[in-house]
Batch of 3 targets.
Target 1
Amino acid sequence: MVTANVPAILPVCKTVGGGNPFFSVQFCLDALGSDPRSADAGMNYRTHSLIAVDLLTANATSTAAKIESLIRRGGGRDDDDATARCLRSCQALYSGILQRQPGSKGAIQDEGQ
């Protein structure tokens, strides 16, 4: 969803997403535009970075909870099952993301001081 805040964040999104095959300008607009803090952030890349970290944390937390729920409900009933192995692998990856997030946010905040 593109919001009225798009003009304010468009230059930021063009800088970080322009030409990137993994992170498009539109993805940036959708993500940052979903957070009301972007409307007041202007060209402050630190603020936008903190917003991005918060969005990533929320997404990873939600995804990790869904994976945990699938495992608890028997997604892949035994250790040899491919589904169980895949879910455990995803669980480990998302757990790693969440463990690193405080450090990411802290590094962005520390950079500004």
Target 2
Amino acid sequence: MQRRRACAALAPILSVLLGLLLVKGDTTEKYSALLLGNEVIPAVNTKASGTASLSFTEHVTTTGGEDRHEVRFWTGDYTITVANLTNVHTVEAHQAPRASNGELVYYFYGPNDNPTAVVNNGILVSGSIDKGQLRGPLRNKNVSDMRDRAHDGDLYVLVVTTQNPNGELRGQFEPA
């Protein structure tokens, strides 16, 4: 009996609390790039190769009781995998369409001023995009702006090594 009264008393409070915060769900978009030397401008002859993956998730939450307000924001995660690669200095994201060089917008890895000659095979780096580290035309922007570049086909990965300071591998992000 006391349990029923307690539940009945809590029901209106829980109803209000649930009305204040409603999670509508998340949407995820995935992009991938094949990293090759012949995609670098100018092309590079290398035995190295790799892949890059980006996953952007839009989070949507509704807050407020009667005055509901929708909050949207994007987060991003990445994984860069390589084979037969040595002396990695940086792994960068640049803003430009395929076959064009563009501005640096993010460092996935590095700069590493003391790269090693150890051959890298497997995941080189993975993590989450930090909007505070966006650069160039994306400086002081949001992760959603980087997602927009990938969505529009204007985002590529450039892997820079000691032996190829203009890039050893490159790949344009495309929908996965």
Target 3
Amino acid sequence: MARQVFVAAECGMFNHKGGVAALLNKYHLPGTLRDEYGKSLIHYIASPTAVDGRPPWEAEDIVKFLTSHEHFINSVDFRGRTALHHLAGHPHSKHERIIWCGREWAAEEAWVSVAKLLTQYGCDPRLADDTGNTAHTLATDAANHDLAQFLQEYRDGHDQSRRLPLE
């Protein structure tokens, strides 16, 4: 039964009959469910699985999941990677055009929007995985320039807010 939830999550099926929400409710499963690799549903939201390069979950479904199901936004898989690590580590072309959330996007632009949603709900891009890589490092290595820039600006903004003013 848990496998069905992850298959639905991988396909981006949230509110559909047989989708993530219905299966969690039907089997009384928590939103904190993990697969055999330690990946949570948050990881599936951020993992590129669609053949055309678009995010598998619509933005509206991401928000519905995050606001209606228990989850650990910074959960890590067995490699110490958060959802942002998964999102950042796969190349997303700026030139590839996709349909996501009912409109045309550059693939990388859509994925930056997913990253922004996750950070708005508390996913911390400053966390390092088991090898010491942050999501920013992975985005840079994968040539996801817009995503790397967003993650850098996020980190810089949060590091600045923690500094004490000089007296």
